[in-house]
Amino acid sequence: MTADIKKNTEAKMDQSIVAFKNNLLKIRTGRASPALLDTVHVDYYGSMVPLSQVANVSLIDARTVSVQPWEKNMGAKIEKAIRESDLGLNPASMGDLIRVPMPPMSEERRKEMTKLARNEGESAKVAVRNLRRDANEGVKKLVKDKLASEDDQKRSEAEIQKITDRHIAEIDALVAAKEQEIMAV
Question: Ribosome recycling factor domain: from which residue to which, for each copy (predicted)?
Answer without folding.
Answer: 20-183
